[in-house]
Amino acid sequence: MISLLKNDASLSAELKHIAEKVYNGTRISNEDGEYLFNHASLSYLGSLANFVREKKNGDNTFFNRNFHIEPTNICLYTCSFCSYSRLIKKRSEGWEYTMEDIMDIVKSYDGKPVTEVHIVGGVLPQYDVTFYANLFKNIKKHRPELHIKALTPVEYHYIFKKDKISYEEGMKIMKEAGLDSMPGGGAEIFHPEIRDKIAGGKCSGDQWLRIHEIWHEMGNRSNATMLYGHIESYFHRIDHLDKLRDLQDKTGGFQTFIPLKFRNQDNQMSYLSETTHVEDLRNYAISRIYLDNFDHIKAYWPMIGREMAQLSLSFGVDDIDGTIDDTTKIYSMAGSEEQNPALSTEELVTMIRRVGRKPIERDTLYNVIEDYTDVVFEDDQLYKGYISLPVV
Ligand code: V47
Ligand code: SF4
CATH number of the domain that 140 lies in? Predict the structure, then answer.
């Protein structure tokens, strides 16, 4: 496949040169990245991205056992892509969990083999530094080994500003309270030309990056996302990836990059059509090729759908997130085909296996919990629905 690409007479000199760089392990430039978005075919991108994926992770494909808690869907902000939040003036239409409500959700997982709780939601004044610090402490007291992956710079910037404390002080308080890692949300598109239009008022791109930087400098890990397929251009996507690659060079603290496809149901940008599946796969592949210093690229199956998540494994992706257990509403409310996202370990393993990859259960920090490559399930026929390779 590699020599096929290098010698393909139909490829432009630029595409040949970029392929050469990727095979030699040389970083591609921003111009190369934009060139790929504008000119590269899906099959070309798939070959290169798969080369990088296999170099970094072989056939290993990661998942975890997790659940989400979304403390509220009322929000002070009015991001135009958000289908989930209800304005503060429509408060009665939403939910606002108390500490007790949230702890009841945590306790409902007692005895179940989950390893991570992912907490993220709307921004409201009662959810402040004290509330979240107490929440993290309460979770750790109840279940010390449960990994808390919680909140984004959007919440942190707001709550630290409200308490008049620095990012450094604030993140230290969160860490001491039990925060283990930060999810990748709130990144959207960093460039102010776009950010000001779709997510005005919340933390800027630079502030998002700075909070991750501080968190990394404290010795911790986090994820990064990019919300694509709305009003941004390829230039803005590359600018976003460039900022992430730069920060990763500095800190090495990012674990995985998660492209998030804009879903258009019930939000202020519903007039836009969604990207095609081809565009989604091209975007995964270019992300994999460009972000040479990220170990993992994740396809978040509740957002993209399980069959697309399977396909993405041939376009640079090596992680499909977790069991979820129908605990997140962000994507079902935005029109995802996954209206009640929940998959068992057996289903995740089978999805991965059916496209010829090795299913590995990981914890949040990518320590291997179990390699399912040779684990046999009693009723494999349950999972007929998924895309399948011929039996190998
Ligand atoms: O920041 C909101 C996005 C994000 C829509 O770190 C939308 O492991 C598309 O960041 N269409 C939150 N996207 C979710 C998130 C995440 C998800 C899974 C795993 C991880 C991780 C992080 O969801 C928001 C925003 O960018 N979002 N509305 C929408 N209509
Ligand atoms: Fe609020 Fe987040 Fe929705 Fe923006 S994306 S309106 S910050 S819940």
Answer: 3.20.20.70
